[in-house]
Amino acid sequence: MISNESTPGQLLFARLDIDLDEVPIEQLTAYTAVKYYLTVEDESPPDAENLEKVKRYLESFEHLSDVEDWEKASAILFIHLDTPTKDELHNQLETWGYYPELNSVYIKVLGKLNSRIDIICLKGLGNSYYLLSNYPQAKKYWQQSLTIARQISDRQSEGRVLGNLGLLYDQQGYYLKAIEYHQQHLIIAREIGDSQQQGNALGNLGRTYDFLGNYIQAIEYHQQHLIIAHEIGDFKGKASALGNLAIAHDSLGNYPQAIDYQQQSLNLTRKIGHREGEATAVGNLGATYYALGNYSKAIEYFHQLLKITREIGNRAGEGRALGNLGSAYKGLGNFVEAIKYQQQSLTIKQEIGDRYGERIALNNLGEALIQTEQYSEAMDNLQAALKISREAGARSSEAYNLKNLAEIHLKLGNSTLALEYCDHALSIATELGIPLVKECQKLKEKLLSEKVYKEANMTTNSQTRGQSLFASLKIDLDEVPIEELADYTAVEYYLMIEDEPPSDTTNLEKVRRYLDSLYHVCKVREWNLLKAIFSIPICISQEEKNLALSLDEYLIWQALTNSLLEIIQNAIFCFQGNIDDLNYILMLKARALSGNNRAAAHNIFSQIIAESPENSENHIEANARLGISLIYSAGYQEGIVSSQKSLTMIENFINYNSELNIQVKMLELKTELLETIALYEMSHSKFKQAIELYTQALNLRIQNKIMHKVISPLVYLGILHRRMGEYNRAISYLTEAKPLAEKFQDDNALAWIPHHLAWVFLNQGKPLLAEEQSNISLEGYKKMESQSGQGGMADVYEQLGFIHLAKNEIDEAYEKFEMALKIRIAIENRHGVASCMMGLALASWHKRQYLKFIKFSLEGFNKYYKIGVLNRVRIFRMIKLAYIWTVGKLNWTM
Hints:
Distance between the termini: 75 Å
Largest sheet: 2 strands, antiparallel
Number of helices: 46
């Protein structure tokens, strides 16, 4: 009989049922050692190190492993310890942070017994590597564990591993993916009635929403977790929920509440010996004191955090501790120490692939560099942080990045660009309800005071620009030939005398006086005057009078190409001059034709390339614009070669030409090429590559203050995220673009944006909302004078075809697809023609015209093949499209 006073080790040895008289002689030493460690060796004193307290069990495990008695070895792993949480040995080792020892144990047992033990080992290995910030290894082990759990229908393990994978995506900044996994975890936990896991899933969802800046939603999830943890006596869960509530309240500026929650969390973690939890609580307390301005107290807690994380080998935690120390020293005004700690933090976070942490380190390092007036390095770090924030959908971090970029541009004297960044940051901060709002408002007041002064000066100049131009040419009407007097007098009238148009006039009427003057300039063959008038700055924002485009760029940007072509044709008809003047005129003509007669545009670009010296400005621009036009007309293979070649030529040209105007022009041309190559990647279903290129184009335009063209990459990023099924992010990008389009009176964008919002609503199964946006888009395109409006109308008609299909209005759908096809054939949009064929095929199916369905499908596939985009991904997407729009939910698009 076992004595009631037996030690836990003696009780365990009795359960192992080891008879030393019956073990083989060659194994006797190992089993004798097990008996010694479990029954003879003294119990560890209460103040011993945690690892020392369980040394007897680990030594016994090692000896049982030596003789490959895996059943008894695993029994030791699952013994419940006399700790506050009553955890099994392997879980307690994780709680204490002994990851190397834990990994060694799991590796030895893995594959030795059964699937359920393997799931535990693989999941534990994943946990261990995750906490060591080795994310690729963590993901590998968790996915292996998930596969086995599903094979044997172990729903509890499946849910836990899904939750762990969600945490991994959180840490790497892929928050929408993380939410998807946490929701799956929650569903399973509820199905099987696992309250603890239900609480964990709710807490993890709260963490993700906290990362995204949705603090109210985060608090709701954390409170649900706290209630469950309290009801079931889950101490770790309760500590976690309290800590997470503290973080959310800290973000909202509720500091006393945050400290109270965090102190409760710290007390619990120390009570149960949870080292990782203790580190988290200590670090969060430091963060709250930092927010209160008590930097000395914050540094005290952050040094405690650094000590704990180094002791338990938590590299991610170490990186956070270093970054926090950098921020605290910055608060004390010790910027040298701040930069040192932030650089150490950034190095660790980049080494372990911690994208979330890298974003924070880049932003903090940028802030510290601003204080030491290292603006170039600061901007590089902040732009890198902004890129990660936008990729991850982390709106709170994006707001802080934008506000810091505004600070830099203010210091550099770029008040207009600073105000752009500040307004964007303020908009996000206001939406999220975070304390940054006050900082942004204060910064905006400062920026506006500078802006008012500048605008007052700009207004005076803008009122006389036509007069100044005419005066600079020193044209004496008394000396011009009598046959030209009427034309020169007309030019004088339009430039000097005619009243400025009212502010609410159309885009065309805004520049009518200059177009009329150009007609007369062509007749007198004054090519320098023609170039000068085309260079007149046209204001593109009623809010900011200093934001302007040259007249020629304005006409192209606002799709007023019919008016531009009319002037160009007059110029060519009257032309007498040198080859440079002619190439200038031809380049404008080709750019105007690119929207509606691409073949003619290609011929002109090719002519300029042939007649211009290699590596000259005209040669490079024509080569780049030819590549752009080819890709937009679905000449993908030839276009991508030309575009990539042009990128190299532009880089070389910029390096050897220091003239500012030419550099600005070439940088914008480079950005247009990046967008075009992104379109090529998108057309070939390489969405991640396209997102990277559009993001690069977006950042370049912001850096170079080409704000009116920020709209395009924003919309395309919305399109890409919609195609990837990330509808909230798609809507976010599209709605971000809309106020910019309104601000710059961009008619094309104001028609384009609702068109793509309609696709999102259709994908979400909301055809009525989709139809509303689609009709707004159609009306916008109908008002446009150029062929760009025709192309846009074709896009909308195709979209309306799908909307009518979703509403089971088959005849109307067929009619709209036919209308779209007719326009696309006329404007030679080969990609669009192929897409219309697929739409007609789907409508034919619903009309039960199955031969037509086959005919249109084959024609569509054939046309996609001919333009070189019929890859494996597109074939799969087209099959999926056909399935969904024939027997599915009728809410998915290409």
